[in-house]
Amino acid sequence: MTTHAADLPPYPWFDLNTECPLEPPTVLAALRADEPVTRVKMKMFGNDAWLLTRYEDCRFVLGDPRFAADRRLPNFPHVGPPRTIFPGNFVHIDPPGHTRLRRMVSRGFTARLVERMRPSIEQFANRLIDDFTQDATTADLKTQLCLPLPIWVICELLGVPFSEKEYFPAVTALIQPKDSTPEGVKSTLASAFAYMGELVEAKKRDPGDDLISDLVARYEEAGELAPEEIVGISLALMLGAFETTSNMLALAILLLLQHPEQLAAMKADPVLARSAIEEVLRYITVVHTGLPRIATEDVMIGEYLIRAGEGVIVSLAAANRDGSVFPDPDQFNIYRFAGTEAERHHLAFGFGIKQCIGQMLARTQLQIVVTTLFQRLPDLCLAVPFEEINFRHDMSLYGVHNLPVTW
User: Which of 71, 74, 164, 311 has the most crowded Cβ, counting Cβ within 10 A?
Assistant: First the structure.
């Protein structure tokens, strides 16, 4: 049965998968089959946009420079409250500015540096597990493991004091709910920008072995970066790194617990952790509202004409469940990517020049956590029925609010 855009609720859809929270809304599969390029009404300003649900189309748009990510462009299809693009925030701008700024920070996310951090990440993960198992038989893994670990990692990388670990989750808690207002988001981000500005100034006086100090020494002193750009780069990396990873960590643990036979296989052969994590990333996405873009000139997507100035939403959830690319796409299968390099073709981290700069660091944390956690606590299980898990249907980044477990 064909699904027509006129029948659809305004986008983004926050509450269409409440009955099956580990699955994308079923309407996405229907659209992919019948109307893979569909007009939807955006909630923010009432502008129409094109929703893409087919893998081939999504990958094409993410890799084509004619589709811009700059939120300041007229008619941009905001999936959340419009946010100010502060100086240095390379995530939401396009080349040449994006290219210039991303090049300057990419040295902090190389495979060599990530591997150098692996032992310390493993050590910190074990420390967190020691803490919550010391005198208890239950824990909330979201708050006691999945959130503090990526905060610590990005703090170590940037040089942000881990003692301030509660500050940044408080910021994201204010800017991510579906009922956030543009004014509230602007005010919260301004406060965070000021906080990070004070930290950058402190690094100038007392530099350390961290990315912020490196940006100051390497680029600001040479006149290639303005001080406010370093502040913006640091804030964008801080806010972007821990929130996505913490929710993927919790979802990875939950998915594995929901598939005990495959979890048992991974426990018996920890090498499977790598392919298991790739399957988690394909199977469910924290970016459940999609990636917004806007056409800068007329472009054909299949038989559909996307005109210059029209918004496009790339549905990662739908693309990664496309059966023409992933056989049995709705089956969770940790062997899917085993022994191959094929994981790079899922779109969990986007595609093209704007794909996630921290994806290797995120993958490493995910692999470490599922391996360490289930080795340390082989009898780990949910402490409440699955139906009582509080999913983030109310947030622009998906995941869970809590993950109560016992062992």
Answer: 311
Distance CA 164, CA 19 (A): 37
Which pLDDT tens digit goes with each residue over 209-268?
999 999 999 998 888 999 999 999 998 898 888 899 999 999 999 999 999 999 999 999
For the chain, the domains span: 5-406
**pLDDT tens figures, 39-69:** 999 987 768 899 999 999 999 999 999 999 9
> H or E segment at 406?
strand 404-406
- Long-range contacts of range 260-266, CB-CB < 8 Å, 24 or more positions apart? 262/332, 262/333, 262/334, 263/374, 265/334, 266/334, 266/370, 266/374
Looking at residue 3, the DSSP 8-state letter turns out to be P
CA distances from 231 to 102, 157, 200, 224, 227 (A): 14, 15, 7, 14, 7
Question: HEC profile for 205-267?
Answer: HCCCCCHHHHHHHHHHCCCCCCHHHHHHHHHHHHHHHHHHHHHHHHHHHHHHHCCHHHHHHHH
Q: Which CATH architecture has domain 5-406?
A: Orthogonal Bundle (1.10)
Amino acid at 14: F
In 3D space, the residue among 407, 397, 403, 400 whose CA is nearest the CA of residue 180 turns out to be 397
What is the token pair recorded at 168? 């940044």
Q: What is the DSSP letter of 42?
A: B
**Is the dihedral angle over the CA atoms 190, 178, 277, 168 positive or is it negative?**
positive
pTM for the full predicted model: 0.93
Q: Say if residue 181 is exposed, middle or buried (CB neighbours under 10 Å; 0-12, 13-18, 19+).
A: exposed
pLDDT bracket for residue 192 (50, 70, 90): confident
Q: Do the Cβ atoms of 148 and 128 come closer than 8 Å?
A: yes
- Contact indicator for 165, 155 with CB cutoff of 8 Å: yes
Which residue shows structure tokens 């692996």?
118
Mapped onto helix, strand or coil, the DSSP state of residue 311 is strand
SS3 53: coil
